[in-house]
Amino acid sequence: MRMLKNNLGYPRVGAHRELKKASEQYWQGKTGRQELFAAARKIREENWKLQQEAGIDLIPCNDFSFYDQVLDTSLMLGVIPQRYTDVLAKNSQNSEIDLYFAMARGYQKDGLDITAMEMTKWFDTNYHYIVPEFTADQQFRLFSDKVFEEFNLAKQITGSTPKPVLIGPVSYLLLGKEKEAGFDKIDLIKKLVPVYVEILTKLKAQGAVWVQLDEPFLVMDLTQKEKDAFTYAYKEINKQCPEIKTLLTTYFENLNDISLTVNLPVNALHIDLVRAPEQLNDVLVQSPEKLILSLGVVDGRNIWKNDYIRSLGHIKKAIAVVGKDRVMIAPSCSLLHTPFDLDLETTINPEIKNWMAFAKQKLNEVNELDKILRDDNELLHNNLKAISSRNLSKLIHKQEIKKRVEAITEADANRASQFIARQKIQQDNFKLPLFPTTTIGSFPQTDDIRQLRSRLKKGELTTEQYDAEIEKATIAAIRWQEEIGLDVLVHGEFERNDMVEYFGELLDGFLFTKNGWVQSYGSRCVKPPVIYGDVSRPNDMTVRWSSFAQANTEKLMKGMLTGPVTILQWSFVRDDQPRAETTNQIALAIRDEVVALEQAGIKVIQIDEPAIREGLPLRKADWAAYLDWAVKAFRISASGVKDETQIHTHMCYSEFNDIIEHIAQMDADVITIETSRSQMELLEAFSDFKYPAEIGPGVYDIHSPRVPTVEEMVSLLEKAAAILPVENLWVNPDCGLKTRKWPETQTALENMVKAAKAAREVF
Ligand code: GLN
Ligand code: ZN
């Protein structure tokens, strides 16, 4: 027998985001189901053929999704919240897709107004899934036939036997949320497993051989009860469906409980050897006889070329211990998290491009590893050449930068004085009123502004013309902020396309792709920058715009930067050095910018870190180490300035309870956070002196065009004042306003200033 080449999943938006375009047109009512289904079918056909050509043996099906694979699973299992049954009733004909989109996006039609289901992050990726909703009397039944239809389609297209992909029953429950009190979702496992048995039995009858069951929760912290659920579910499945071959897949971390996992009665187990190579030895030693191991050696989370020597090391070791018949090779996780095809990139420096691999290239890597094992030395040689060219390249390695990071001291991460002393100085200098008002940075990015940028790119505008237009927009925003009486102004970020891309384009060590899209949620894709080399800041980045803005007002103008952790989190990062090292390089670049802003006369500087919580490792035991370097990186970026300069930071909606100490250790003078949607509940984390500095809890939700009333904002401020010392409170919206339109923004901010003034009367 030969070694099987396995693939867990493939990007599904299409090489040119065809699915995005098709679904958005369908949502707008411009096209019908037929067009949508045709576009979706084409993507699947192409994906399957591509995988077949790349020699993949276990080609996934049902990894395609119109929106999200967790939502697909909810539909498959009939987990449809009560509020959508109306949609179902109104569209009785062929309406599954409309019900599905209603669950994903809400439904405002035919006199109905139904909210969408909640969305949250898929483990530590930037992919977001639709959270299943469970009730105490939750029932499960086979509802959607998508998996069976896709199996048939894939069989027909490939002429071979595809491998259906399902989210496993335990992870499915753990991904969901109890919508009422009085039960534990994990107890639903007994009701859920019979539906899985029914599905597997049906797939078997259709001719399926292997079925992939994704159980990523096997790498998470697990309670005994959750572990028991795994044992129960897989014993039951094995008992009821002994003929189907089960491939249990885990990824993103090492197995939480190796002994539990390897002893589940499945035919094969997939482990992630990119994120967690250290688990290989134990898994090999502890695996019972007959368990096949799928080795995830090709990185499904990043865009770098595989280091064949390292991967072959793992594969050969596994073969030596368990034998060739019990080894499969695969990418580490679904390729969903990588862009489609590197061949489409025509502008990347060829030297750097030769170090990279997107989804299509990664399939080929799996194939090549197999060929090398069968003695293809030339492939190995070529890979070695690429890998060593990267190890030594002058494009990447800059001694001055490495030395500067090495020389970072504790002092570099500390402001001159403690917060209390700084606060006194800043208060004396700024003389701001109680409840000072400000905004988070961006103002509406209108079509006009966006068009300026695209015309500049196309060469239809000169830089001078573009700058003049941006200056106009900035001045208008300043005048208007002065008129309504805001205390600390912003320049509006009109010159920025995106808060990470803008900096990436100005820093050395970053590159940008033309088509490197990755699905973030539904039809939304992001194109993360690639950090390929040591990062440095050849020139000032924001000084021009901030000092221009400051020169046009007597009021305080806030400088606006993106923090090192957020820049790291929202990029594809280097895999040849620890994340902490890369973050420190970015931190030093931001630090220099902060100092340059101070020298240019900017007295208030905000360093946004909305992604700090996203960076938390999957397992609690690893949190402290991450928070240590992440917080320190922020401090390095913020600590080059004098006590007189006020450092702000900003974070979007997140739970702060379990990391409040670390947020405090960031030692910003002011933090602005998103709290309005939680009615200031999130602010509780900052109560009882757990947070020493000043805080601006957002008083209105910027995600909707709704204009908040003065009264409701006053009442939120009163709530905040009951939790925190009044002297420490700021007044601001939840986040930046770039996605809003001007009219609602203007009224909302006018009301906000009125609310602050009203609050000043009370206190
Ligand atoms: N300064 C940024 C803005 O206002 C912050 C955005 C964010 O927190 N995501 O747009
Ligand atoms: Zn925000």
Automatic annotation (TrEMBL):
Its cofactor is Zn(2+). Residues 6-318 form the Cobalamin-independent methionine synthase MetE N-terminal domain. Zn(2+) 1 binds at H650, C652, E674, C735. It catalyses: 5-methyltetrahydropteroyltri-L-glutamate + L-homocysteine = tetrahydropteroyltri-L-glutamate + L-methionine. Keywords: Amino-acid biosynthesis, Metal-binding, Methionine biosynthesis, Methyltransferase, Repeat, Transferase, Zinc. GO terms for molecular function: 5-methyltetrahydropteroyltriglutamate-homocysteine S-methyltransferase activity; zinc ion binding. 5-methyltetrahydropteroyltri-L-glutamate binds at R17, E18, L19, K20, K121, N126, R524, C525, W570, E614. One of its GO terms (biological process) is methylation. Pfam families: Meth_synt_1 (PF08267), Meth_synt_2 (PF01717). Binds 1 zinc ion per subunit. Binds 2 Zn(2+) ions per subunit. SUPFAM superfamilies: UROD/MetE-like. Residues 435-757 form the Cobalamin-independent methionine synthase MetE C-terminal/archaeal domain. L-homocysteine binds at I440, G441, S442, E493, D608. L-methionine binds at I440, G441, S442, E493, D608. Zn(2+) binds at H650, C652, E674, C735. Its EC number is 2.1.1.14. The active site is at H703. Pathway: Amino-acid biosynthesis; L-methionine biosynthesis via de novo pathway; L-methionine from L-homocysteine (MetE route): step 1/1. Belongs to the vitamin-B12 independent methionine synthase family. Catalyzes the transfer of a methyl group from 5-methyltetrahydrofolate to homocysteine resulting in methionine formation. This is 5-methyltetrahydropteroyltriglutamate--homocysteine methyltransferase. It comes from Mucilaginibacter mallensis. The gene is metE.
